[in-house]
């Protein structure tokens, strides 16, 4: 269970959340009615797939956590394991939505997650990342963007000759010599392994880094659930040549689960906060990300600092596959709940239900004791 509420980063504490909401829970929500779906987005047949999941002892994924490598001697062990991924488990707003099989990353003794753990360190400190595939069933590698490294640490089997087969371990040395927000992923059969969940954020804080009042990490991704269903044993046909995404996520969840304070990624702020969001696109499509009622500036792109003279106020940033955009804004609006979403409208759907999908929100702490927030918590499945 995470100590902080909201997206991975520096949200408010659990105690602050309870105080701000007046102790919202199931009893407080008993009078709320959640919108029911016109069409469910169940991935898999009602019979065979549900039986497959019941017969499986696979773990369910947890939200991505921040691994502060700097605080543990810059040594991290990563494993990948099959898991079941609940994108939105409730029967509200087009749910439930599930990816019945993913390959989740697990760091050290943490929980498996999709996206994988956020690996964070400090500029100038090399990290030793060990890919532990001793319990695996297929080859994997690790490739880190945003690090100038030795050839054999690049993580690409076709050009280095190194792949980590099932039953093996391999340690990569990753220099933290390019500050900024980056991405890592498996580079073996990349088209399939990223789409099975093997991706995450690599963050290098520059020397003298000054954090904002609130800082959050958010990875967006598009999924073609046929691949995940096929890998779970369903009788479906999938080809990357005919990839057709039908699930859209923020930090692995679709709205309204994205607003769940523990399982989702609400952007929780207090009026007057400076807010910094590190966006990463872990998918294969561009996503124009729009923030309601706030003007922001893009201050970093792919680890490069954008000069102040080149910055300007904006409310949408179009992020390509594997790109990283860091934005900053002031929480200067009237306290309330304001959306953050992809502006390709069909990406903000769960099946045929709108809204859903790639949508989260800026939630002011001052607005957490309202009836509408209580309703949103019911839609998201929060029970207090």
UniProtKB/TrEMBL annotation:
Residues 113-207, 244-353 form the Plastocyanin-like domain. Residues 28-67 are annotated as: Disordered. InterPro entries: Cu-oxidase-like_N, Cu-oxidase_C, Cu-oxidase_fam, Cupredoxin, TAT_signal. Keywords: Copper, Metal-binding, Oxidoreductase. Residues 35-56 have a biased composition (Polar residues). It comes from the Archaea. CDD domains: CuRO_D2_2dMcoN_like (cd04202). PANTHER family: FI03373P-RELATED (PTHR11709:SF394), MULTI-COPPER OXIDASE (PTHR11709). This is Multicopper oxidase domain-containing protein. It comes from Halobacterium litoreum. The lineage of its organism: Archaea, Methanobacteriati, Methanobacteriota, Stenosarchaea group, Halobacteria.
């Amino acid at each position: 269970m995470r100590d902080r509420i909201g997206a991975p980063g520096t949200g408010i504490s659990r105690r602050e959340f309870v105080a701000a909401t007046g102790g919202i829970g199931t009893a407080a929500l008993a009078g709320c009615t959640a919108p029911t779906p016109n069409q469910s987005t169940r991935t898999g047949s009602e019979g065979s797939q549900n039986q497959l999941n019941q017969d499986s002892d696979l773990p369910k994924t947890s939200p991505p956590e921040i691994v502060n490598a700097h605080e543990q001697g810059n040594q991290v062990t990563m494993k990948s394991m099959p898991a079941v991924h609940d994108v939105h488990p409730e029967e509200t707003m087009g749910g439930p939505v599930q990816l019945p099989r993913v390959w989740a990353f697990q760091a050290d003794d943490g929980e498996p997650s999709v996206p994988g753990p956020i690996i964070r360190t400090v500029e100038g400190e090399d990290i030793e990342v060990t890919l532990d595939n001793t319990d695996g069933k297929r080859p994997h590698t690790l490739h880190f963007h945003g690090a100038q490294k030795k050839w054999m640490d690049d993580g690409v089997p076709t050009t280095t000759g190194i792949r980590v087969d099932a039953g093996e371990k391999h340690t990569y040395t990753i220099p933290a010599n390019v500050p900024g927000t980056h991405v890592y992923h498996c580079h073996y059969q990349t088209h399939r392994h990223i789409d099975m969940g093997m991706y995450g954020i690599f963050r290098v804080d520059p020397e003298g880094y000054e954090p904002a009042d609130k800082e959050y990490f958010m990875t967006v991704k598009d999924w073609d659930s046929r691949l995940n269903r096929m890998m779970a044993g369903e009788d479906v046909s999938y080809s990357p040549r005919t990839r057709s995404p039908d699930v859209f996520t923020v930090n692995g969840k679709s709205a309204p689960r994205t607003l769940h304070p523990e399982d989702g990624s609400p952007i929780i702020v207090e009026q007057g906060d400076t807010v910094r969001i590190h966006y990463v696109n872990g998918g294969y499509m561009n996503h124009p990300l729009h923030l309601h009622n706030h003007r922001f500036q893009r201050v970093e792109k792919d680890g490069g600092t954008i000069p102040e003279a080149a910055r300007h106020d904006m409310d949408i940033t179009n992020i390509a596959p594997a790109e990283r955009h860091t934005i900053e804004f002031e929480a200067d609006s009237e306290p309330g709940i304001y959306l953050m979403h992809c502006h390709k409208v069909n990406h903000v759907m769960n099946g045929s239900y709108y809204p859903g999908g790639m949508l989260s929100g800026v939630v002011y702490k001052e607005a957490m004791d309202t009836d509408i927030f209580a309703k949103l918590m019911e839609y998201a499945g929060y029970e207090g």
